Amino acid sequence: SIAFVGSLKRAGETLALITRESDDFVQAIRPGDSIAGWKVVEVRERSLDLEASGERRRLEIFN
Asked: Which pLDDT belongs to residue 1?
């Protein structure tokens, strides 16, 4: 399982910060990357869009 924990702007690009259930590390990913069988489609400040096998999911951060 993947948790979207934040975003980071770097050199004009927004990266998604995620954690996986299998470890305690925070990983930065960008559009085009693949994670746990899902392709990263879009990263925004408060949301992350993923796609796999024609299915699209959005992970969001709420305050």
From this structure: 85
